[in-house]
Write a structure and sequence with these properties.
The protein starts with 14 loop residues before the first helix and ends with a helix. It folds into 4 domains: 198 residues, no CATH class; 82 residues, no CATH class; 118 residues, no CATH class; 29 residues. By secondary structure, it is α+β, with helices and mostly antiparallel strands. The chain contains 15 helices and 14 strands. Strand 7 and strand 8 form a beta hairpin.
Length: 473
């Protein structure tokens, strides 16, 4: 029974692979195999997350970067590596072992594996086949449909048990034929490899829609451009577009425009909180500081229509007053009580610059270079000023300079950045140069150099060995 392409499933390494890994346990457990077994067990236990909370909390507290995993199930990548390696050890040892040792290992593995499948089949009547969201689905779709879904789950359970039994039974037949010299090693290995391939491809087809793999020319038409999109794109300035119907998940919006959203599994928390605040309070000035010039909405006729935001503050603007706040929470709490065109909330415990500025009516700020990792502005003012930039503040990556002289970036308005600009005309440049990338690049270069040296030494050793052999001959 096929699964829909959007179905989310667990990690799958293959029924045959698990059987071969089990069989390797009945041969000598030398150190390499022990480490693989430890890796499998630890990976499995850690992937249980809150179901084994004390272990998860221990790793979060004492193992660096462990808390950075988006999902605890990510740790199963270790299991997905260790099991196939252990399976290959088992298959190799089976082919190299004596007939008696191979027969004993195969017999014990078959009893345990097939016995386990039989127990799972008997337990089917004790399982509820319910999910954590079933109550919600019942309220939406009704109890009758959920009963049909429960029946489908039971059928899938029984079908997969039978499917696993068939694959493992055929594997056992191949290995038995080898023991009794009915099949040589090459054909037995090829047969098992083919079984593993078929097993994995069949399961992958449950989750992958092959029609999604298209040629680039077809990908360009992933979304259909509406007249509203075409009208907005006539504006060649630097601005952003917001589509309320899609919110931050606006993959369609981001396809055609410089949007404030776009689909991604991970989003900056502060930015997401700010958008939540806007949606809850409907405080439109928040869109103004995010440089939202156009809002796309669907009218009563079902057609998309653009609305221009007349109060948009643009890529950057001058303010007259800074309002210091001790913490990010203080800034957040005041975000709906500020006239952003005049004031900026600055997150700082001690501000080392003036709080008030005289705004030059003829002052200008122009975005001249707009690249993902570098932005350049030309700023002119007859007075010392403070400029707020409609770009995310990120102290661990972005740096700023005024006329090539490094300067301090201040966190303003919860998510944005600001600079104090001296009077006159200046070129302001932001660059994204996180130290971790520079350090990683240095390590990568060193690794390439070492690899090159090893290759040279290896070639030299081969030449010397060849010369020695020719001398002996």
């Amino acid at each position: 029974m096929g699964r829909p392409a959007y179905f989310r499933g667990a990690a799958y390494v293959g029924a045959v692979v698990v059987f071969l890994a089990l069989m390797s346990l009945f041969f000598p457990l030398y150190p390499n195999k022990r480490w693989l077994i430890i890796g499998i067990v630890m990976s499995l236990l850690l992937s249980w997350g809150k179901n084994l909370d004390f272990l998860t909390q221990f790793f979060v507290a004492y193992f660096p970067l462990y808390s950075k995993f988006r999902a605890v199930s990510s740790i199963q990548v270790i299991l997905e590596f260790c099991l196939p390696v252990l399976a290959m050890f088992g298959l190799k040892e089976f082919f190299m072992a004596s007939s008696i040792a191979a027969k004993n290992a195969l017999k014990k593995s078959a009893y345990i594996y097939l016995g386990g499948l039989f127990v799972l089949y008997l337990l089917a009547g004790t399982l509820s086949f319910s999910g954590v969201n079933d109550a919600y689905y019942t309220s939406v779709f009704g109890a009758d449909l959920m009963q049909q879904i429960a029946k489908a789950r039971k059928a899938i359970y029984a079908e997969d048990l039978l499917r696993t039994f068939v694959f493992v039974a055929i594997t056992i037949l191949f290995l038995t034929a080898f023991i009794f010299n009915k099949l040589n090693k090459t054909y037995a290995f090829a047969g098992i490899a083919l079984l593993i391939f078929i097993d994995l491809v069949q399961v992958s087809n449950r989750y992958l829609d092959r029609d999604l793999f298209v040629k680039p020319n077809r990908l360009r038409s992933a979304f259909v451009s509406s007249p509203a999109d075409k009208a907005i794109r006539q504006d060649k300035g630097h601005y952003r577009v917001y589509e309320p119907a899609l919110g931050l998940q606006g993959g369609r919006t981001a396809y055609f425009h410089n949007a404030i959203g776009g689909y991604h599994g991970a989003k900056p928390r502060r930015f997401e909180e700010l958008i939540d605040l806007f949606q809850q309070k409907q405080y439109e000035p928040i869109l103004n500081i995010l440089n939202v010039k156009y809002i796309l909405y669907t009218n009563e006729e079902g057609k998309m229509q653009p609305i221009q935001n007349p109060d948009n503050l643009g890529p950057a603007w001058f303010v007259e007053e800074l309002v210091p706040k001790a913490t990010a929470d203080d800034v957040y709490q005041n975000m709906t009580a500020v006239a952003f065109e005049k004031k900026a909330l600055v997150e700082t415990k001690a501000l080392d610059i003036p709080l008030n500025y005289t705004k030059d009516s003829l002052a200008t700020v122009l975005l001249t270079e707009n690249a993902p990792m570098a932005k350049t502005y030309t700023i002119s003012s007859s007075e010392d000023s403070f400029v707020v930039f409609s770009e995310m503040y990120y102290a661990k990556g972005w740096s700023a300079s005024i006329d090539n002289v490094s300067t301090t970036i201040y966190p303003v308005n919860y998510v944005l950045r600001g600079l104090r600009i001296p009077k006159g005309e200046h070129e302001v440049t932001f660059r994204f140069t996180p130290s971790v990338i520079q350090q990683g690049s240095s390590v990568q270069l060193l690794g390439l150099i070492l690899l090159g040296l090893l290759l040279i030494l290896g070639v030299r050793e081969l030449i010397n060995t060849k010369a020695i052999l020719e001398t002996w001959e």
